[in-house]
Here is the input.
Amino acid sequence: MSPADRRTTELLVETVAAHPEDTIGFDALLEPLRARAFGFLLLLLAIPNFIPVPIGIGGVMGALVAFAGVQMLVGLERPWLPAWLLRKRFARTSVLRFLERIAPVMRRIERICQPRLEALTQRPATLFSGLLLVLLGMLLALPIPFTNYLFGSLLLAFGIVLTERDGALLLGIWAASIALIVSAALLSGNILRLLGHLL
Here is the structure.
């Protein structure tokens, strides 16, 4: 079975297990995922939306999401990341333990998310996904109250469907993204008008 046909968790576990050194770099983790690395990156960027983090982290995460979207818009097949981040190394045993912990959840997700309508997860359809991610990233960077979980859930879903190449579910994610973008834009406008009246 070629790497393109393998499930994401299988690829990651095999890559880490076969790594000859005690530490493994971020670049080595992304390499077997190839184009699916965009989805994996979105999964990582979604995590801070569900945990207590310093105020202002939304701006940083939003900028990173928008940055990933721009890369998809310009047609990159895999995300470009700074060299210092690609050189970041993790203990191989720690990564394996982490993958083992999330494996049951990922296997359940993989039973629902399966490769289908894969053309929607490839160019030129990825250009539209990139545009939506740019807009979502911009909104995430704004201090809109009570939206972290909404944006985080959407980014998590985006990451999963791109990683598992599920074009059928991606259609639903596109619709949800458009609805959230329009709703957040209207909410932001109302908040700005209210502040204008108060001031």
The chain has one domain: 3-198. The two ends are 64 Å apart (CA to CA). The chain has a mean pLDDT of 76.
